[in-house]
Design brief:
Elements lengths: L1 H24 L5 E4 L1 H7 L2 H40 L7 H62 L3 E4 L21 H8 L6 H5 L17
Parallel strand pairs: 1-2
Helix pairs in contact: 2-5, 3-4
Length: 217
């Protein structure tokens, strides 16, 4: 029994010695945290980019509405032609002409419907790509600032506390407020922000989705 205890104690001592040696070899410096989501939302370029994307969305929606209006007009014309071809006073020759006109108008409306569907699909894809490029550009600028700040301040590591892990829990369970550099990063990013009036135009949209879905009506 005593032999087993001594072996366990020897293993524990060895493990402790290895851990102490490993810690001694680690570079000095603090581990700090940042809320990337907060930084992204408070960066002055984000609402400006969102406003530009919203203008693009509004333009696309206007074009789509015009297409839908034309489509509804074609449907009305098709219905009138269908009603007209059933009148008993027409000769068979006239009825055949009316039937042909109905088939042509039907083909026209079907083509317009396909055009609308293709327009929504392709332009939604374009908007998603533009949104992704905007986000990546802004996130790259944010990460560049964080990396420079970390190097200059000698931080050992910077952890992002926004969002959850794959297990559905926060990546940072606890940290002291003094270790949070979120506000510092926001100040650095916004030090060259334009006059307040230039940014205020887009303030109303900063809490809305960057790219709202196209109106499907």
């Amino acid at each position: 029994m005593s032999k087993k205890i001594s072996v366990i104690a020897w293993i524990a001592a060895g493990t402790l010695a290895l851990s102490t040696a490993a810690l001694a070899q680690m570079p000095s410096g603090r581990i700090v945290i940042v809320d990337l989501n907060q930084v992204f939302n408070q960066y002055y370029k984000t609402p400006i980019a969102s406003a530009k994307l919203k203008d693009t969305v509004d333009s696309y929606n206007k074009e789509q509405e015009d297409m839908i209006t034309a489509y509804k007009k074609q449907i009305d014309e098709l219905n009138k032609l269908r009603e007209d071809q059933e009148k008993p006073e027409y000769t068979q020759e006239v009825r055949d002409q009316k039937k042909k006109a109905v088939q042509e108008k039907l083909a026209e409306t079907q083509k317009t419907q396909r055009d609308i569907d293709e327009y929504k699909r392709s332009h939604q894809q374009i908007l998603e790509q533009q949104t992704q490029r905007m986000r990546q550009t802004i996130l790259t600028e944010i990460k560049d600032v964080i990396n420079k700040e970390a190097r200059d301040a000698g931080y050992l590591m910077v952890l992002d506390k926004s969002g959850n892990t794959l297990n559905g829990v926060p990546p940072v369970v606890y940290s002291q407020d003094a270790l949070d550099i979120t506000d510092d990063i926001v100040k650095i990013l916004n030090k060259n922000a334009p006059a307040k009036s230039a940014v205020e135009k887009s303030k109303g949209d900063e809490n809305k989705p960057v790219v709202p879905p196209l109106d499907t009506k």
